[in-house]
Amino acid sequence: MDKYIGRQELALLKEVIASQKLWKKEGAFVRKFEEEFGKHLGVKHAIAVNSGTSALEACVAAGGIGAGDEVICTAYSFIASSMVVLRANGVPVFADVDPKTLCLDPGAIAGKITARTKAILVVHIYGQPAEMDRIMQLARKHHLLVIEDCCQAYDSYYRGKKVGTIGDIAAFSLQQGKQITSGEGGIVATNNKDLFRKASMFANIGMIWDWERPEAGSHFALGGNYRMGELQGAVALAQLRKIGRFNGKRRRFARIIESELKNAEGIKLAHVYRGAQPNYYFYPLRYDAEKAGLSHAEFIRRCNKQVEGKKIEIHAGTIRINYLEPIYRDIARLKSCPIGCPKYKKKLEYKRGLCPNLEKAVPDGFITIRMHHGRTAEEISAAAGAIKRVLREAKLERER
Ligand SMILES: Cc1ncc(COP(=O)(O)O)c(C=O)c1O
């Protein structure tokens, strides 16, 4: 495997240690990372925090979401994307997905907007940009905040704009598996000064770093300590400086998969919306069991047998439908906030049937290939080759 974390990270880490300044207030690296990330993304404000989940919580807090407020969410994401709403005592209202991409379906969002809706939390899942034009139109019409979860979507574009710059505020993750990493870590990004101040106070126990002197050190809001430390800041900065190389590698991987599998019967390549440019964090192939002649589970089993011992991950998708997780069943039964809250007088159930398109597409309609930049072109080629071989064998079995 390529060493994607190496000399550059070590060099900056040494500088941090030599400086004896391990926290943001005294050090230079977290600030430098924020500055360079802001420039890279093209936003005025970036706040480094200690995880993508913390970044999302800060976005929700900045949006003033609280008891009785509904937020339209997707159920197809790492559960943090909806759990952060519950943590603020808000109510996640799940809209269905477009079965071609598993991103929120703008048509389904429209039907979920009520007088209580305060925000839409969009996830660009697998690095595929959601249909942002239609989502933004709806949001503007109904005066809703748009939070973009870009934890998997560094440098994905939608109609010429980077995702994370289209909505009002965005969250990124620096967890180990992501496009750039500091082990754990996250970033809040926005062009809106008011949202920036609120998010930054939330992440810094009610204080903001760079306020004018008389205000420095005062605590203006409720918050926690979600700050990133200098050691992580140094690693994140070194990683950010390599992001172009990492992205280029994943684009090459996507071309390999597409040229190998474009004519495969039973598999469809990723659906890309007009004007969208995914970053191919994972490659989502659409699977048709009838055409392939194998159940989805059997197909995945055979593919993984083919690549045994190699660093290749062919998944059935690694994400769980959020509202089917035990936490949602339990929380809906509570007599207190968020859902049993006296301010929230509606009865809401989280149960099977809420998002039929999603439930139909997952777990059987997709196969994902992990496209981590630590992989090699040979490994990605082997993954595509394994899929082709399994399809060919299944066809021969059928013809026998
Ligand atoms: C789409 C999405 N949202 C949120 C998160 C949460 O990020 P973190 O693990 O850094 O808290 C992740 C990462 O796992 C993610 O993939």
Give structural notes.
- The chain has 400 residues and is an alpha/beta fold.
- Helix 1 runs antiparallel to helix 8, helix 3 crosses helix 4 and helix 3 crosses helix 7.
- A seven-stranded mixed beta sheet has the order 1-9-8-5-4-2-3, with helices on both faces.
- The chain contains 14 helices and 14 strands.
- The model has no long low-confidence stretch (mean pLDDT 94).
- It folds into two domains: 236 residues, Aspartate Aminotransferase, domain 2, CATH 3.40.640.10; 113 residues, Aspartate Aminotransferase, domain 1 (Alpha-Beta Complex).
- Strand 4, helix 6 and strand 5 form a beta-alpha-beta unit.
- The radius of gyration is 22 Å and the shape is globular.
- Bound molecules: pyridoxal-5'-phosphate.
The N- to C-terminal Cα distance equals: 40 Å
β-strand percent reads 5-15%
Query: What shape does the CA trace take?
Result: globular
Q: What is the ordering of alpha helices and beta strands?
A: HHEHEHEHEHEEEEEHHHEEEHHEHHEH
> Helix share of residues?
25-40%
- How many helices does DSSP assign? 14
Radius of gyration: 22 Å
Low-pLDDT sequence parts: none
Structural class comes to alpha/beta
Number of strands: 14
Mind telling me which CATH architecture of the largest domain this is? 3-Layer(aba) Sandwich
Strand sequence of the main sheet, in spatial order?
Answer: 1-9-8-5-4-2-3
Q: Spell out the CATH superfamily of the largest domain.
A: Type I PLP-dependent aspartate aminotransferase-like (Major domain)
Mean pLDDT: 94
* CATH topology type of the largest domain: Aspartate Aminotransferase, domain 2
Give the distinct bound molecules.
pyridoxal-5'-phosphate
The main β sheet shows up as: 7 strands, mixed
